[in-house]
Amino acid sequence: MKNIFLVLSLLIFPLISLWAGDEDDVLRAERELALCYQNSDAACIEQGVTEDYTLTNSKGKITTRADDLAEATKHDPKYEIFENLDMKVRVHGGAAVVTGITRTKGISGGQPFDVEFRFTDTFLKDHGRWRLWAGQAIRITP
Q1: What is the rounded (10 degree) CA torsion for 47, 49, 50, 53?
Q2: Residue 58: its H or E element
Q3: How do residues 15-66 score in pLDDT, each as one tens digit?
Q4: Cα dihedral: 28, 107, 138, 68 (round 10)
C-alpha cells in the first residue's frame, strides 16, 4: 500500500505543480499586458498578443492587434490606470481562459473616463510563453 501511494505521489504531485505553474504564468502574463496598455507600450503589446488577436469590445465592435498598436502609438487613450482585479484562470493544455474585472481611468479623445469592464481573455501557449489570443469586454454600469 505504501508503494502505491509513493508511486501515485511521484506521478500526480509534479502534474499538480505544473498546472499551478501554468496558472501563475497566465496571470503574470495578464498583469504584464495590463501594464503594457497602461504605458502605451506598443512593442510590449506586440509581444504579448498573437498576430491574429481580436477583441470584442464593450460596444460590440471587433478590434485587432493592429488597432491596439495604433492606439498605443498615438497614446489615445492615455491611461492613468489599467488594472485587472478578481482574476480567475482555467488552463486546459496549451490554452487558458482568464475572467475578471478591468478598471481603466484616463483620457480618450480629450475626454476623461473612469470605467470598469468584466472581461474574458483567452491565452495560447506560444513557444513556451502565454500570449493573448482573444478577448471580450462588457462595461459594468454603476
Answers
A1: -150
A2: none
A3: 444 445 899 999 999 999 999 999 999 999 999 999 999 999 999 999 999 9
A4: -60
Give the Cα separation of 106 and 85 in Å (integer): 17
What pLDDT score was predicted for residue 142? 80
To which residue does cell 470584442 refer?
Answer: 56
For residue 21, give the amino acid letter: G
Gap between the Cα atoms of 72 and 36, Å rounded: 9
C-alpha cell read off for 17: 505543480
**Domains of the chain by range and CATH?**
2-140 (3.10.450.50)
pLDDT tens across 69-123, in order?
999 999 999 999 999 999 999 999 999 999 999 999 999 999 999 999 999 999 9
Closest-CA residue to 81 (of 45, 135, 37): 37
Helix (H) or strand (E) holding 40: none
Amino acid at 11: L
Torsion of CA 15, 22, 116, 133, to 10 degrees: -120
Residue 33, amino acid: L
